[in-house]
Design a protein that fits this description.
The protein is an alpha/beta fold and 264 residues long. It has helices at 16-32, 51-57, 85-91, 101-107, 111-123, 136-140, 144-155, 191-209, 225-232, 249-263; strands at 4-9, 40-45, 64-68, 95-98, 127-132, 174-177, 217-220, 239-242. It has a single domain, classed as TIM Barrel. The longest helix has 19 residues, at 191-209. Bound molecules: phosphoenolpyruvate. Phosphoenolpyruvate binds at residues 9, 11, 178, 183-184, 220-223, 241-245. Phosphoenolpyruvate is lined by residues 9, 11, 178, 183-184, 220-223, 241-245.
Length: 264
């Protein structure tokens, strides 16, 4: 069975107390279920106010990771309301989401800004989860792969293979294919379509950075217990970036559990 990356994006939910209860329950459930770091990697992406309790409660090494949902590309300065990649690192994050569709569509992150954030995350020693995906209009116009390619190549423009090669046991970057129309809508991509997009992205990654390079490719967009086994068993899908279903330990872990029991 392949290793699964189960990543939870809490968006603007979960106050510090709620994050603490979540972490305690997560730790006890995963030890009861005997999760093993060879099989699963779990990352939580709380809102900034709840990162510190998550970092404090999760063990430093092993299957659990804490990440930020975004980060600005300068360390300090007159950027009202922003939190820098450096600050994410200082508070104890190891991971960061970059280019989530809500940042692109609501907060105006362009491909250029996403590229700068990606570069800065890497320079600060964070593992970025680069999010990308097409709108419904683009899918219906048959432009999906062209759009994915455009977003990925723009984000990678200033990145060298050395910066993202990881350390042998852990990746230096992850990709998260998230069709915009599937995020928070209850309507996931068909498994075959998600597989095609993830395979294409992995191939592009190899063409761009070199044939020996690889990285996990996640699918995100309305992943839940009932569709997890089919999506996660696709050859080029290494995990899930989960929004709504990551807010309760039960629904979050059911995603991995359903995949695991279907694959046995
Ligand atoms: C997300 O926020 O990245 C996401 C995929 O959300 P949801 O699982 O709720 O669709």
């Amino acid at each position: 069975m392949k290793k699964i990356f189960l990543y939870g994006n809490w968006k603007m939910h979960m106050l510090p107390k709620e994050a603490e209860s979540f972490c305690s329950e997560l730790l006890s459930c995963s030890s009861e279920k005997r999760y093993d770091e060879k099989c699963i990697d779990i990352a939580l992406f709380p809102p900034f106010i709840s990162i510190a309790p998550v970092v404090r409660l999760l063990p430093e090494n092993g299957i659990f990771k804490a990440g930020a949902q975004d980060g600005w590309y300068e360390d300090r300065g007159a950027y009202t309301g922003a939190v820098s990649m450096d600050m994410n690192r200082q508070i104890g994050c190891t991971h960061v989401l970059v280019g989530h569709s809500e940042r692109r569509s609501i907060f105006g992150d362009t491909d250029d800004i996403v590229g700068r954030k990606l570069k800065q995350a890497l320079q600060k020693g964070l593992v970025p989860v680069l999010c990308f995906g097409e709108t419904l209009e683009q899918r219906e116009a048959g432009q999906t792969l062209a759009i994915l390619g455009k977003q990925l190549l723009a984000a990678w423009r200033e990145i060298e293979a050395d910066e993202i090669k990881g350390n042998g046991s852990y990746p230096g970057i992850l990709l998260a294919y998230e069709p915009v129309w599937a995020i928070g809508t209850g309507r996931n991509a068909k498994a075959a379509d998600a597989q095609e997009a993830c395979a294409y992205s992995r191939q592009l990654f190899k063409e761009h950075f070199g044939d020996t390079m690889n990285c996990p490719v996640l699918y995100g967009g309305s992943v839940k217990d009932s569709n997890a086994a089919e999506l996660l068993s696709q050859k080029d899908i290494d995990g899930a970036l989960v929004g709504g279903a990551s807010l309760k330990v039960g629904s979050f872990l059911a995603i991995y559990d359903n995949y695991r029991s279907a694959s046995l």
